[in-house]
Amino acid sequence: MEDKKKISIVCFSGDFDKAIAVFTIASGAAAVGYEVNLFFTFWGFNIIKKKKGRSFVGKGILARVFNFLMGGFKNLPLSRLNFGGISPKLMTYMMKKRNVATLNELIQASIDLGVNFYACEMSMIILGTKLTDFIPQIKEVLGVAKFLEIARGGEIIFIS
């Protein structure tokens, strides 16, 4: 019997186009039977925060201000040619016009296909966040050692 194929993706980036890459790979791999693990860290937290806009989450004034400045899901910039924040809206429009799954649809497909979502413990400590600050699909808060244990035997991709 063949072992189940596995892919684990470290999502370090909070860029719109890189989030599309994360969830395109995740949903595609899950659709063809891979076990998929997503590990969100630092800027990647913007994708999984419960509050989608700018918000003062976190413990302590510095953490709260830093989390506010990070922006949240509604403020994910394009990694290049962001044009003051309009590019993600234009990209979403073009995706819809060409019948390509949008970021929101890719995220929902990943959830529906059983992709595992994890949050980085160290990043949470630094940013003063807690599990309740994130979407309910976060399965667990992990340190690097535990993530590597879960990822063992599969491919690891780092998207930054």
Describe this structure as you would to a colleague:
By secondary structure, the protein is an alpha/beta fold. The protein has one domain: 3-Layer(aba) Sandwich (Hypothetical Protein Ychn, Chain: A), CATH 3.40.1260. 41% of the residues lie in helices and 17% in strands. The chain has seven helices and five strands; from the N terminus they run βαβααααβαβαβ. The chain has helices spanning 16-31, 45-48, 61-70, 87-97, 103-112, 121-127, 144-151, and strands at residues 6-11, 35-40, 116-120, 138-142, 155-159. A five-stranded parallel β-sheet has the order 4-3-2-1-5, sandwiched between helices. Helix 1 packs parallel to helix 5. The longest helix is centred in the first third of the chain and has 16 residues, at 16-31. The mean pLDDT is 94.
Keywords:
single chain, 160 residues, alpha/beta, Hypothetical Protein Ychn, Chain: A, 5-stranded parallel β-sheet, 5 strands
Topology:
Layout: E1 6-11, H1 16-31, E2 35-40, H2 45-48, H3 61-70, H4 87-97, H5 103-112, E3 116-120, H6 121-127, E4 138-142, H7 144-151, E5 155-159
Parallel strand pairs: 1-2, 1-5, 2-3, 3-4
Helix pairs in contact: 1-5
- In terms of per-residue confidence, which ranges show pLDDT below 50 for 5 or more consecutive residues? none
CATH superfamily: DsrEFH-like
Q: Overall 3D geometry?
A: globular
Mean pLDDT over the full residue set? 94
Estimated structural class? alpha/beta
CATH architecture: 3-Layer(aba) Sandwich
CATH class: Alpha Beta
Find the CATH topology: Hypothetical Protein Ychn, Chain: A
Number of DSSP helices? 7
Instruction: Say how many strands there are.
Output: 5
What is the percent of helical residues? Answer: 40-55%
Percent strand equals 15-25%
Rg (CA only): 16 Å
